[in-house]
Amino acid sequence: MAPMASMAHQAPSTHSVAFLARRAATALAAVLVLGAAAAPAAYADSPSASPKKLPDGLYGSKDPQYDGVWRQSLALLAQDTVGVRPAASAVNWLAGQQCADGSFTAFRAEPGKPCDAKTRRDTNPTAAAVQALTALGGHGDAVTKAVSWLKSVQNDDGGWSSMAGSPSDANSTSVVIGALAAAGEKPQSVTSKKGGKTPYDGLLTFQLGCAAKGDGHGAFTFQLKGAAPNADATAAAATAARGKGFVVEPAGKGADTPVKPLSCKDGEKKAGTDDPAQAAEGGDGYLVAQLEKNGQHLLSAMPGAEEQPDVGNTADAVVALAAGAHGAAAAKPLKWLEKNSADWAKQSGPAAYAQLVLVAHATGTDPRSFGGTDLVAALNATGPEPAAAAKEDTENADGSKDGGGLGVVWVIGIGLAIGAGIGFLLSSRKKSRL
Fold first, then answer.
1. What is the CA radius of gyration of the chain?
2. Which residues contact residue 319 at a Cβ distance below 8 angstroms, ignoring those fewer than 6 apart?
């Protein structure tokens, strides 16, 4: 998610005390030291003051000021995806965060108090909540209101920004596309009031074509201003261009479609493409090139600091490749994640565990044995005890059984990105999603 969404992809990552620049082009972004899964929309002006005591039902032990709704949505969505029924208190907390007009902000310390003009309504947590509440079921009215609000703040170019009225960005547009698809809408039919542009029209404007400098061909940029290749935005956009959100259904055993990078001849200056599927392929080609260049992981760095592995962005890239049925291309960074994500997830919290659960689901990997870690148990331990766990013996898609709970009843859902922490820096927001 994030989405992605890092979801790694940017909108800011927010939850732990050390943050890493991950969403490269938003004005403010909080990012985790290790390259956390990005939770969108952090503000200089906080959405709601930090609570003295964490609310009942909330996942995670860190300050929810900037990522409460985001990490809760990811946690509940991941649980639902593996057949775990979340605690009623957890679901009620998320539903209770909604404003009367259907929108969500990052966190409301006093959900009983009506939202007003000062409430920082945000498309990113709103879209994440839509995906979670849709998957859980029983929240049709809340979902309808949230989708209506998202439609009401669509920009003329067809896309969305984190904050209504600001220029569109690739990550916010991507997470909203995932929400629309999850809620049963056809993104291609959701058009801007002025100009009649679709979300895909807006999203594809961020793809860099053959005129991109260096190895940026096929990549997406976070915003048009600056127009630099961004892996976070690329992973989010490549998933969304296929009409998918945080939850990507596995393509099936042995599925492996070769990646088709954007083809550029010497001196060619053509732009991207107006075909979403082709744009997604171009984005995947850029991601594969970056993964291979860096040892099957993506990089991120704080301003002035050395580059280091970005686990959240790498997870988002794996989901993007799985969405394109690129089994072989996804397998290599997946192995890197299995070996290198445990400490990151432990430090980052519920959204990071949720993001890895969604990676496992998209690739057909067992989330209860992910590089030696039971991601489902670890996620469950960060919040209230689930109402019901998945059955230990369930049937997989191929008819086989396993006692580890891998083959749970997968629910078609939504998805990408994430973050962890409260420390929060000037940076950028492109990715995924705590």
1. 19
2. 1, 4, 235, 239, 246, 248, 358, 359, 362, 415, 416
Q: CA neighbours within 13 Å on the CB side: how many for 127?
A: 43
Alpha-carbon span 93 to 69, nearest angstrom: 9
The CA angle 52-53-59, to the nearest 5 degrees, is 130
CA-based nearest residue to 91, from 134, 40, 37, 145: 134
- How far is it, in rounded angstroms, from Cα 10 to Cα 14? 12
The pTM for the full model equals: 0.82
Q: pLDDT band at residue 391, thresholds of 50, 70 and 90?
A: low
Distances (CA, A) of 278 to 5, 166, 237, 260, 306: 21, 28, 12, 8, 34
Strand 421-422 versus strand 15-16 pairing type: parallel
pLDDT tens, 24-69?
Answer: 323 333 233 233 344 554 443 457 777 878 999 999 999 999 999 9
Bridge partners, residue 207, by sequence:
220
Give the HSE-up count for residue 231: Cα atoms under 13 Å, Cβ half-sphere.
Answer: 31
Sequence letter at residue 209: G
- Cα 8 to Cα 388: distance, rounded to the nearest angstrom: 29
CA dihedral 328, 243, 418, 284 (to 10 degrees): 30
Question: Quick one: average pLDDT of 102-119?
Answer: 96
Question: Which tokens sit at 338?
Answer: 């299995």
Work out the burial of residue 265: count CB atoms within 10 Å of its CB; fewer than 13 is exposed, 13-18 middle, 19 or more buried.
Answer: exposed
Complete DSSP assignment for 145-194? HHHHHHHHT--TTS---SSTTSPP-HHHHHHHHHHHHHTT--GGG---TT
Confidence of residue 303 (pLDDT cuts 50, 70, 90): low
**Do 415 and 248 contact (CB within 8 A), yes or no?**
yes
Q: Is the pLDDT of residue 418 over 70?
A: no
- Does the pLDDT at position 214 exceed 90? no
